[in-house]
Each structure stands twice: as C-alpha cells, then as structure tokens.
Design goal:
Helix content is 39%, strand content 16%. InterPro entries: Cyt_trans-like, Euk_NMN_adenylyltrnsfrase, NadD/NMNAT, NMNAT_euk, Rossmann-like_a/b/a_fold.
C-alpha cells in the first residue's frame, strides 16, 4: 500500500512557489507563507511542491523604506539559512531596470523547464543559479511556477494604475495564484467582483492562515525608527545585520 501511495505521489503535477516583494526587512511571516502553502498542497495530495523562490524587487521600485538591494539580499540569505527548500533569486534585483511580476514568473518558470529538458549540467550562460530547486531532473514533466502572496496583493489588483489587465490575466492564466488569507477576510468576494479573476478562478488557491501574524516589514521599520525592540519579530541573524549596518535609521535600544 505504501509503495502505491509513493507511486501516486510521483505522478502528481509539479509546482513551485515564487514570492515577489520588497523584503525590507524579511519577516518570519514571509517564510511561513511558503510552509503554509506547501502543507496545503501536499496534505491534500494535489501537487508535488518542488521548491520555493524569493525574488526581491529592483531598487528602482522606489517604495518608501526600501533598503538597498545588496542589504535586502543579505538579510534574505540570513533568514533562509534554516530552510532546506526556499531559495533566494537575485535575478530581479540585478536586472538593469524594474521588472514586471509577470516577467519574473516567466523567466524563472522557463528556466526551470528548460533545465529539466536540457541534457547537460550547465546552461549556456554559465553555472546554475542558486535559486534552482534540487532534483528537478528526476522527472521530465513541466513545472508550474505559482505566485505566492497575501490577500493584500490580491486586493491590489483593483487599485487603478497599479496593475495592467494583461499582466493580471497572464499571471493568473499561465501561472496561478496561491493566496494566504486571514480569518475573517473575504477574498472570494473580491474574486467575484473581478471579471479577470472570476474567469480564471480555478487557478487561484485560497488558503486560510489560522495562526495569524500581523508583523509586517513596515511595522518593524516603524519600531526600529522609534528605538523600540523588535526582538522575536525578526530572525536574530537579520536583526544583528540591521544593528551592524544601521539600516532604517535604527535608534539605539537596550534589548
């Protein structure tokens, strides 16, 4: 029976998650989203999750409180030291200019599937990137890369001028969304009110986070700027990095 179960798992469609954002700084909730999503898909035996990717946004995004990309990359690397399956991609931050989310998804999905179907150990451009999940060549079937996000990103689709309709349609139609929602939120209503999201609602997975965590990057920056403790709100290694570099106009505190 166990052999049959394992064989069945081997036949499940393969997916990976990609989270875009500022990560200024990265918080434990950024990583918890990956764990919540993987549990959902694997416990329901819907897909085989092959990896998770964090892609920090380009410096030219220009959001308030955005630390330089070199610092954000360093902090994400520190936060990921305890993870065996979530990896950091620096492709977006090293691009000559800001990149649309749909392009970030397309690049990483195409790279993974080209790698799966290529005969050699190296791509033509050189060594394999560190974000590439392990053991992708165990099978030859394609991998779908889904955008992992919170309900706030889903709701941002409705903000005028923020997202192009063709970008939203491409993301949902060709990749899919995995949305981590809070208890009491109503993402189903938001999807109903959007013609594009309703059209592709079968590609949207809503997962309720039953252990809410309201710690955001903006909250951490505010506390640091006020000289208040953020211990236990961030990974200790990330906090030490912020102290050492003086990011976010951090004022001294005793803790």
């Amino acid at each position: 029976m166990s052999a049959f179960i394992e064989e069945t798992k081997c036949l499940l469609p393969r997916i990976a998650f990609l989270a875009c954002g500022c990560f200024s700084p990265p918080t434990p909730m950024h990583l918890r989203m990956f764990e919540i999503a993987r549990d959902h898909f694997e416990m329901n035996e819907m897909h085989k999750v092959v990896g998770g990717i964090i892609s920090p946004t380009h410096d030219s995004y220009g959001k308030k409180g955005l630390a330089p990309s070199a610092d954000r990359l360093a902090m994400v690397k520190l936060a990921l030291q305890s993870s065996t399956w979530i990896r950091l991609s620096d492709w977006e931050v090293n691009h000559p200019q800001w990149v649309r989310t749909r392009s970030v998804l397309q690049y990483h999905q195409n790279y993974m599937n080209n790698y799966v179907n290529s005969p050699g150990d190296k791509e033509q451009s050189g060594p394999l990137p560190g974000w590439l999940p392990y053991n992708l060549r165990e099978r030859k079937d394609p991998i779908q890369l889904r955008l992992l996000c919170g309900a706030d990103l889903l709701e941002s689709f409705a903000k005028p001028g923020l997202w192009a309709d063709e970008d939203i349609e491409d993301i949902v139609a060709n990749h899919g969304l995995v949305v981590i929602t809070r208890f009491g939120s109503n993402p189903e209503r938001f999807i109903f009110e959007s013609d594009i999201l309703t059209k592709y609602q079968r590609n949207i997975t809503l997962i309720t986070n039953w252990v809410p965590n309201e710690v955001s990057s903006s909250l951490v920056r505010r506390l640091l700027n006020r000289g208040q403790s953020v211990k236990y709100l961030l990974d200790d290694l990330v906090l030490e990095y912020i102290k050492r570099t003086g990011l976010y106009n951090m004022k001294s505190y005793v803790h």
